[in-house]
TrEMBL record:
Keyword Ubl conjugation part of the UniProt annotation: no
Protein name: Tripartite tricarboxylate transporter substrate binding protein
The entry's keywords: Signal
The UniProt record lists the keyword Signal: yes
Amino acid sequence: MNRRNALRLAGGALLTAPLLSTPFLARAQEAWPIRQVRIVIPFAAGGPQDIPARIIAERLSRTMGATFIIENRPGVGGGLGAQMVANSPPDGATLLFISSSISILPTLQRQLNFDPLRDLAPLTVVCDVPAGMMVRADSRFTDLASLIAEAKANPGKLTYGSGGVGSANHLAGAQFAALAGLETVHVPYRGVSQAVNAIYTGEIDFVFGSSVEVLAHHRQGRARLLGMTMPQRVPAVPDIPAIAELVPGYSAPNWFAMFAPKGMPQPMMDRLVAELTAMRDDEVLNARLSPAAAIIRMDGPAALTAQLTAEIPRWRDVIRKAGIGGDS
């Protein structure tokens, strides 16, 4: 090949190569405008949100040209961290990773004057995380029917624990009692792990907790799950009934979601949503969450908005009927 033909071929390659690989190069070279991004979890470190949030932070750090770090900001049932994100500049430096408790905040923490639909930009529901009602393995309650029967025969005697007043699991128990026509006593703890310990010591009769927090105890044979809070049976644990099978109308879905501050430019929102949606089939995320019966969704802003729109008024009704106050 002579020099002229070689140069012609080289020039043609330079002209055509960008056309073939532009999308890949653009994604690889397009850096996030902020070099370090905080993903705020508004609960204490070590909670069930930490596992998926840290995997997501690591994945985003690989693809977004920025470093994503986790920052735990507990307080006011998740309201402190959520409000901090809502008040942050919409410049891409701060995101929120929170549980379904965000649908409770507008009613229970009225002093915050916080409304997630008004004050935050939804990114996606990350995953559904079923919750369950659990007793000790040697409990006299062998199934949900026996617990309901004893609670009806002894009003105000049975006690249940949760991760705190106004937590999603507290309200799961309050809704259970209301729909089943029971009078039970709620005992709040500083986290579900403390409430689980309390069933082993005999302080309480049963506990509500997310599958991330309770399923391993059931599988190890140390405790027994009597029912799940999702409206239907959970595919990963088909032998455990949905509470709704004995208590018609019962549903206390639990989920994790991500938000950005309101006002983030649409191109930045679109980029984040695209990156999160691409994680739906992430092997590491699925491998870490599937043992806890969690179901990855990553289904975008519209689904998260619809979820909030449905659940905020439903939990408002449960809170008011149960007389639950935010100052406890």
